Amino acid sequence: MIDDSLRAxxxxxxxxxxxxxxxxxxxxxxxxxxxxxxxGAAVGLARFPxxxxxxLILYTGMGLPPVVVGLWVxxxxxxxxxxxxxxxxxxxxxxxxxxxxxxxxxxxxxTMSAVEGVDPELRLQVRALGATRRQSSWIVLREARIGLTAxxxxxxxxxxxxxxxxxLVGGNIxxxxxxxxxxxxxSTRQGDFGLAMALGTVLLLLALGANAFLLQLQGRAR
Amino acid sequence: xxxxxxxxxxxxxxxxxxxxxTVLEIDRLEIAAGRTLGVxxxxxxxxxxxxxxxxxxxxxxxxxxxxxxxLFPYPAPxxxxxxxxxxxxxxxxxxxxxxxNVTFGLRLRGKAExxxxxxxxxxxxxxxxxxxxxxxxxxxxxxxxxxARALAVEPDVLLLDEPAANLDPAHVALVEALIRDVxxxxxxxxxxxxxxxxxxxxxxxxxxxxxGKMVEAAPTAAFFESPTNARTRAFLAGELVY
Lengths: 222, 242
Hints:
Strand content of chain B: 25-35%
Number of domains of chain A: 1
Largest sheet of chain B: 6 strands, mixed
Shape of chain A: globular
Largest sheet of chain A: none
Structural class of chain B: alpha/beta
Largest interface: A-B, 16 and 23 residues
Number of strands of chain B: 10
Shape of chain B: globular
Strand order of the largest sheet of chain B: 6-7-8-3-9-10
Oligomer: heterodimer
Number of helices of chain A: 11
Distance between the termini of chain A: 44 Å
CATH class of chain A: Mainly Alpha
Number of strands of chain A: 0
Distance between the termini of chain B: 35 Å
Order of helices and strands of chain B: EEEHEEHEHHHEHEHEEHH
Order of helices and strands of chain A: HHHHHHHHHHH
Helix content of chain B: 25-40%
């Protein structure tokens, strides 16, 4: 089995799978961060009617089963769906969309918590020192930077390891939409445990490397 | 807001509430430009709330505040807001060095670090702590950093909330000397303190707040030597008047 694993690691097809995994998850993470951080910060900083409901929705979103998200995106992108004309189904774009939906509430809710954790007195005092509203929000985000990094780490962990959504909307097409998690499922089903183990190890190492990078950023922020 | 005929602040019919509770009632109060008003009173008297209104952080539920004769707009335009600065009773430090905290207001204004920062650090005995983490300071050190941070921007109006509450006697003298220098520049100061001696030493006029209500306001000498209100006399005698 170990020989099989080593052989699999030298397979050029594996590089394609790793590359696509990173491309899909990376892009989804960037989009979810670009939307989730401002939304989370806005919800955390603002007082408005219905804030508790929005918070409840975001917290619930953190536990969205990927397979359910996959189902929604599948219906949305299928020929009769609202976005069927995009013809994204069974393409990496559909996988990015699904993973963005999974990552968004994680980023937004954890950003909201991080921002709410910043001493509200600090915001007032920063304003009393002459900060504009925008400067004051930026300063709060800066103060919450360790929590923000944690939000991004959590979202990354949530989507790089998920299989249900990418399987449904990507279809696990070899050389096109196959990523590490769907490749592991396929290899296991085919009884190719050596390959499955090798892919699992690669996935873990990639996650380790990416998290080490994010932790490095968090360390610099301290 | 330099010394002149128009008061720096004119408050009229102020009522401020938190929920159903009225926390501040001031029928009429003028704060002369370039002068120092001491605000004394026990804890919970509404002193800090008054400062929040003067800084424009909160809008009074009723009444009006005029600054230099003009109605205080909400939210205050940046140019006006930046002429007023508060040193809070419990200063919140940014997660940065002491020096970065002191230069913070200047950076907000897009100004380069000026010699004033070094002078303030030196004057307040903070130079050896310049690179220290501002969140790891003692209460007294934090209070001095907060004062330096506010003075670095050279405000026209300085609102001080118990600026010497956590300081040892040597640092009280240091801070009071600095406040006197700021007074000499013509800065309008509102000094909130529970320490009547401090108000007596620094304020030109003194005001007593009890239960959110203005009891008496007078030139400092008259306030302490011949108060007209029985509750002021009782407060100054150290009796419980609330």
